[in-house]
UniProtKB/TrEMBL annotation:
<dbReference type="Pfam" id="PF07228">
    <property type="entry name" value="SpoIIE"/>
</dbReference>
<keyword id="KW-0472">Membrane</keyword>
<dbReference type="InterPro" id="IPR036457">
    <property type="entry name" value="PPM-type-like_dom_sf"/>
</dbReference>
<feature type="transmembrane region" description="Helical">
    <location>
        <begin position="34"/>
        <end position="52"/>
    </location>
</feature>
<protein>
    <submittedName>
        <fullName>Serine phosphatase RsbU (Regulator of sigma subunit)</fullName>
    </submittedName>
</protein>
<keyword id="KW-1133">Transmembrane helix</keyword>
<keyword id="KW-0378">Hydrolase</keyword>
<dbReference type="InterPro" id="IPR001932">
    <property type="entry name" value="PPM-type_phosphatase-like_dom"/>
</dbReference>
<feature type="transmembrane region" description="Helical">
    <location>
        <begin position="12"/>
        <end position="28"/>
    </location>
</feature>
<keyword id="KW-0812">Transmembrane</keyword>
<feature type="domain" description="PPM-type phosphatase">
    <location>
        <begin position="138"/>
        <end position="377"/>
    </location>
</feature>
<dbReference type="GO" id="GO:0016791">
    <property type="term" value="F:phosphatase activity"/>
</dbReference>
<dbReference type="InterPro" id="IPR052016">
    <property type="entry name" value="Bact_Sigma-Reg"/>
</dbReference>
Length: 394
């Protein structure tokens, strides 16, 4: 049984069962002939304990087994030949010793795996920050499910940062899945975070992301082999321009004012607008755009599209791990239909329902990494004052 399933309740229950098993062997042995040896059956207890119980529980089971079998076959029966006594004691000693040694190795292995898991989790959390993320005016909540077992992140990426020029939000999907895509995702995320603070234009930030991905692909081919695949990344970059939207008195827009969003699409699936009245509509992206890493194939730069986020509206963006998740019969996940049902739910409840239903639709076996984000306005009391641009503070 894998170490992560060894719960305290399970090991405690099994420990009691093994103690009862040993007691039963002793009773049966006393009620039967001396020539009917049961020490080999008693040795099953420490072997099972080594595989499924804790190290200390294995020592206890092994010690009790050795003491009981030594007393029954080595000390009490005077009519048993000496060679038989010695064989019984030696065989039990070997079985118990081997069981304790195996339990010790398993304990050390589990400790190593736990350290590796904690290290991997810290490294992955450094790549993708834990949701929800807050900026000056909005909160971005969501979930991330890796298709690779025991991994927290994989081929999808997201970020939301507050910059001197407004909020910048990214959701993307690296070609491929699992941990092998982390390098390309890290390259795009690093470029996004740096460009967001120094480039006011979303399109120039996208250019920086594409350049970062290009450098990663080039270095990968140089260090591994020329045949290494060049990764590309579909992405949706959203932003607000706080400085342009502020009123004359320098205060941020009121809660009853719409937020104009700027969107640059890099071959990603379209987001959805969820209205306060429960309405849901897919945002019509004017230009699909090419994924990051393929921009040089187009004869023009990617365009910025303006979308209005009305008061009380939320915007849901996801990766194709959600929209293209397949059921056992091959049907895709009906995201639009589900959102129509759940539009009246709060953001945490909607995300929880979506994640649970997605797992049910796929039978718990995602074919690709899946991420979903919902962006909505922060309450007025939680809004923070705007940080002046770097040029204004110098």
């Amino acid at each position: 049984m894998p170490w992560r399933f060894r719960t305290h309740r399970f090991t405690s229950g099994l420990f009691v069962v093994l103690l009862a098993y040993l007691a039963m062997i002793v009773v049966i042995d006393e009620l039967t002939s001396r020539y009917m040896r049961l020490d080999v059956y008693a040795a099953i207890a420490p072997v099972v304990a080594a595989a499924l119980c804790t190290y200390r529980q294995t020592i206890v089971i092994g010690a009790l087994d050795f003491i009981a079998m030594t007393a029954i076959y080595g000390v009490l029966p005077a009519d048993v030949p000496a060679i038989t006594r010695a064989g019984a004691i030696l065989s039990n000693a070997l079985m118990v010793g081997a069981s304790i040694a195996v339990a010790r190795l398993l304990r050390d292995r589990e400790a190593l795996l736990e350290r590796e898991r904690a290290t991997g989790e810290a490294a992955q959390r450094a790549l993708l920050r834990q949701l929800p993320l807050r900026t000056r005016e909005v909160v971005v909540d969501g979930f991330y499910v890796s298709s690779q077992r025991d991994a927290l992140v994989g081929g999808d990426l997201y970020e939301a940062v507050q910059t001197p020029y407004g909020t910048r939000v990214l959701i993307g999907d690296v070609q491929g899945k699992g941990l092998s895509t982390l390098g390309a995702g890290a390259a795009v995320l690093t470029a996004f975070r740096e460009a967001a603070y120094h480039r006011r234009s979303l399109t120039s930030g996208v250019v920086a992301m594409e350049q970062g991905l290009g450098r990663y692909n080039a270095s990968t081919q140089e260090q591994s082999s020329p045949d290494a695949p060049e990764r590309f990344v579909t992405a949706l970059v959203l932003g607000t321009d706080d400085t342009a939207r502020e009123r004359a008195d320098g205060e941020p827009p009121r809660q009853d004012e719409a937020i104009p969003l700027l969107i640059v699409n890099c071959g990603h699936c379209a987001p959805y607008l969820i209205g306060p009245d429960g309405s849901v509509r897919e945002v019509e992206l004017e230009e699909p755009g090419l994924p990051l890493g393929l921009g040089e194939l187009a004869d023009h730069v990617r365009q910025t599209q303006r979308v209005v986020l009305p008061p009380g509206c939320r915007l849901l963006a996801c990766t194709d791990g959600v929209t293209e998740a397949r059921a056992a019969d091959g049907s895709f996940y009906p995201l639009a239909d589900r959102l129509d049902r759940w539009a009246a739910l709060s953001t945490p409840a909607l995300l929880g329902r979506l994640r649970t239903d997605l797992a049910a639709h796929t039978g718990g076996h995602l074919q690709d990494d899946a991420a979903a984000l919902i962006m909505e306005r922060l309450p007025v009391a939680d809004q923070r004052p705007r940080e002046a641009p770097v040029a204004d503070r110098l």
